[in-house]
Amino acid sequence: EKGAYEFYMLKEIDEQPAVMRTLEQKYFDEAGNILIDQDLRDAINAADRLYIVAAGTSYHAGLVGKELFEKIAGVPTEVHVASEFAYNMPLLSAKPFFIFLTQSGETADSREVLVNVNKLGYPSLTITNVPNSTLSREASYTLLLHAGPEIAVASTKAYTGQIAVEAILAKAMGQDKDLEVAKNFDLTGELTKVANGMQALVDEKGQVEKLAADVLGTTRNAFYIGRGIDYDVALEAALKLKEVSYVQTEGFASGELKHGTIALIEKGTPVIAIITDPKTAAHTRSNVQEVVARGANVISIAAEGLATDKDQIVLPEVHPLLTPLVSVVSGQLLAYYTSKQRGYDVDKPRNLAKSVTVE
Ligand code: F6R
């Protein structure tokens, strides 16, 4: 139930620290062993390449998943939009393994791919919030998000839940392969840090509410920029903003902006920069300078260790591969408040349905 909340979206944003804690409990025992069936671990580690297939926000969670599976489990990973993959399958590796990310477990575009994958006889895993959903029943294996029902059309806690489950699976795989990086990854400790960091961000939501009013109040368009994992989050934060507030928003790789899209920056154009990676922070900051010089109204969201006085949002420090779990919360809140301030029904954006069961 919504209780004191005006909209489910804010309730579900606020629930994310609890989702992280639930996942820690569901997927780790007291001794720190990962509770994922050995069958699944063996099947996925037998693959030479992972194919993540999903739509919308779940696709964006897949982009972060690629980082996790490649860096923690050492397995090459491709991420595909389901509606594209279904009718234009790329050349597959010799031993592919398919991962379907789907909150609802009912998305027709994703199911179409699974039907084909089953015909070809390849193994698959569905990561979903809904036990017994169609994609769960039809895949070889299922992992649950344990996020509780997600009612708002715009997905929030399912995205962070998906990333956390991908991280847990990646660690299990890497440990089974005896990879140092996986063995040394203190994921329970890191997820606790994430939960606390998320809590700090939602406790400070008044600050984001004000930024939304000041910077996004009346605009018709906006940009999110970032590099690497921050670019993945830029895509998701842009989708959140456009779907609930109808502000036309593009998520862009910061370095790519100058190759054309910067032509769209005018006086007052909002540009929201996500900066969590020390390797690229200076580059993204110089991209911010480029848009400021053209009149952009910038919000910068930076990890604590990289932050300056000029950053409007400072993100609590978490593991470098888990920064999307905190940076996205700021984007979710910006989207929520922009929609609410414009007087929209935040939970039911026009033209959208919670689960898309047509192709
Ligand atoms: C965006 C959103 C959609 C869904 C997409 C896939 O906020 O909710 O983009 O992520 O329709 O849905 P699932 O994950 O149920 O397959």
Q: How would you concisely characterize the structure shown here?
A:
This protein is of the alpha/beta class. The chain is 47% helix and 15% strand. The protein contains 14 helices and ten strands.
Walk me through what this model shows:
This protein has 359 residues and is α/β, with parallel strands linked by helices. The protein has 14 helices and 10 strands. It has helices at residues 8-14, 16-27, 38-45, 56-72, 82-85, 108-120, 134-138, 157-176, 180-183, 187-203, 205-216, 229-245, 281-293, 323-341, and strands at 49-54, 77-81, 96-102, 124-128, 141-144, 221-226, 248-253, 270-275, 297-303, 313-315. The strands form 2 sheets. It has a 5-stranded parallel β-sheet with strand order 2-1-3-4-5, with helices on both faces. Strands 7-6-8-9-10 form a 5-stranded parallel β-sheet, sandwiched between helices. Helix 4 (56-72) packs antiparallel against helix 12 and helix 10 runs parallel beside helix 14 (323-341). The two termini are 31 Å apart. Fructose -6-phosphate (F6R) binds at residues 55-58, 102-104, 107, 110, 154-155, 239, 243, 355-356. Fructose -6-phosphate binds at residues 55-58, 102-104, 107, 110, 154-155, 239, 243, 355-356.
Distance between the termini: 31 Å
Can you write the helix and strand succession as a string?
Answer: HHHEHEHEHEHEHHHHEHEEHEEH
The count of β-strands is 10
Number of helices: 14
Helical/strand content category:
alpha/beta
Mean pLDDT: 97
Backbone CA Rg: 20 Å
Structural shape: globular
Largest sheet, order of strands side by side?
2-1-3-4-5
Low-confidence runs of at least 5 consecutive residues: none
Helix content: 40-55%
Q: What ligands are attached or bound here?
A: fructose -6-phosphate
Largest beta-sheet details: 5 strands, parallel
Strand content: 15-25%
Function: Catalyzes the first step in hexosamine metabolism, converting fructose-6P into glucosamine-6P using glutamine as a nitrogen source.
Subcellular location: Cytoplasm
GO cellular component, one term: cytosol
GO molecular function: carbohydrate derivative binding; glutamine-fructose-6-phosphate transaminase (isomerizing) activity
